[in-house]
Amino acid sequence: MDTPNKFTRLAILGSTGSIGTQTLDVVEHSGGQYRISVLAAGSRVDDLISQAIKFKPQLAIIARRDLAGILADALSPYGIETASGPEALAEAVTREDVDMVVTATVGFSGLLPTVNAIMAGKDIALANKETLVVAGSLINRLLKQSSSRIYPVDSEHSAIAQCLVGEDPESVHRLIITASGGPFRSWPARRIAEATAKDALKHPNWSMGAKITIDSATMLNKAFEIIEAHYLFGIAPERIRAVVHPQSIVHSMVEFKDGAIKAQLGVPDMHLPIAYALGCGKRLGCISPRLKLSDIYTMTFEEPDIKRFPAITLAQYALERGGNTSCIINGANEIANAAFINGKIGFNDIYKCIVNIIDSVEFVEHPTLEDLLETDRKARHKASEYISSL
Ligand code: NDP
Ligand code: MG
After folding, report:
1. 22: helix, coil or strand?
2. Lower CB density within 10 Å: C or N end of the chain?
3. Secondary structure (3-state) at 55
4. φ and ψ at 41, to 5 degrees?
5. Which of 255, 294, 252, 245 is nearest to 276 (CA)?
6. Of ligand 1's atoms, which has the minimum distance to the CA of residue 210?
7. Helix/strand/coil percentages in the chain, nearest 5
């Protein structure tokens, strides 16, 4: 990153969430390498106020407009500018005092700020995988016309990026993405059908926000990560496979044409991939607990069970069908995932909802940004209708 300052100035979108708070931990332990220009959150206004008082950004944004007054009243004595609404997030990423944008909001909300950040030439530490799921081709086209670079935060993609350092891209045979298997890995199908949100929110290895934890339980998260890897690394879908590794020690692997496999290992803790992204591939100090190899008794690897977790097959389907397909899947999933958390539908209804509405939203082969916004709106509408009909 070319910055005239000794420090990198960050906009953190989704600062009150799991990735957002861990990003602030990394900033705090970086010895002054980072300054915060913008903090943005959805609705947890008290957390945002505390963060702003501590990290002193130029601007704090709350997406929920009805909380704008509370934020402004709390932060004006500190001389911190405030704003509200989704368009404030999309605008803030283009500010002069921002060098890098950390996209850590959930779901489709990450798309517009990321598009704007790329068009403004800002580097991106990308946690919001839904951006590449819904708009991978568009994002890659925009990147070609911009000086902006994307550094993945997702642990699997960070692992792959680390394995690829110094390698000729032509020598890659395939990418092997590890999956923990989620909380239902060893549950029989009949028990999975009865699973509640409380069951699904108990992830065995990772502590994450609710939406991605449910996506991990259905394994749609792994499908999304295959799509994300395809767009990040330019590898054909048939050369990306997922393997279940319940210990979550190997974060992903690259197999090369000579048969060598490189892996990145570590404890399941997001501070390391966040720090690697903020460092643009340079290593910062260690704030994750260190992996003690003597504590690892066993590492196992197994094929994902597509009968119990059919959502994982949606990656191949979405990439083969192309166009706006993965945007439809994402929109339907956001509605179904939330309905499951709210106890309105059963666990298996999430996948059923997605496959039921795929054909009911018009297929667009080469979607523009406007097409994707429209696709997302229609997919949500169709998914809500489907859920009401259950
Ligand atoms: P959380 O739910 O913990 O946090 C989400 C953050 O985004 C919160 O700050 C939330 O604000 C904010 N937010 C939500 N909706 C909006 C909106 N419409 N506008 C503005 N801000 C919004 O999620 P995670 O941190 O777990 O995940 C963030 C992203 O990172 C996701 O895309 C996820 O897939 C990805 N990711 C997460 C990993 C993890 O370990 N957590 C690992 C790999 C990827 P508030 O809470 O104040 O409402
Ligand atoms: Mg991941």
Report:
1. helix
2. C
3. helix
4. -135, 175
5. 252
6. 2
7. 50, 15, 35
* Sequence letter at residue 147: S
> Cα–Cα distance between 24 and 16 in angstroms, integer?
9
- Using the Cα atoms of residue 357, residue 362, residue 366 and residue 369 in order, give the sign of their dihedral: negative
Residue nearest to atom 40 of ligand 1 (CA): 208
Quote the ligand 1 centre to 110 CA distance (angstroms): 9
- What would the two tokens of residue 241 be? 């496979």
Cβ within 8 Å of residue 112, ≥6 positions away: 86, 89, 90
Return the ligand 1 atom nearest residue 13 CA.
21
**Ligand 1, atom 22: nearest CA belongs to which residue?**
42
Question: Does residue 233 lie in a domain region?
Answer: no
63 assigned to some structural domain? yes
In a domain, 138, yes or no: yes
How many domains, in total, are found in the chain?
1
| CATH assignment of the domain containing 80 | 3.40.50.720
Tell me the pLDDT band of 4, cut-offs 50, 70 and 90: low
**Among 221, 304, 293, which residue's Cα sits nearest to residue 250?**
293
The pLDDT tens digits of the residues spanning 138-147 come to 999 999 999 9
> What is the residue range of 98's domain?
8-148
Using CB distances shorter than 6 Å, the residues near ligand 1 are 14-20, 40-44, 63, 86, 89, 104-106, 109, 127-130, 154, 206, 208-209, 211-212, 270
**Any domain includes 359:** no
Q: State the average pLDDT over residues 238-253.
A: 97
d(CA 75, CA 59): 10
pTM: predicted TM-score of the whole model, two decimal places = 0.97
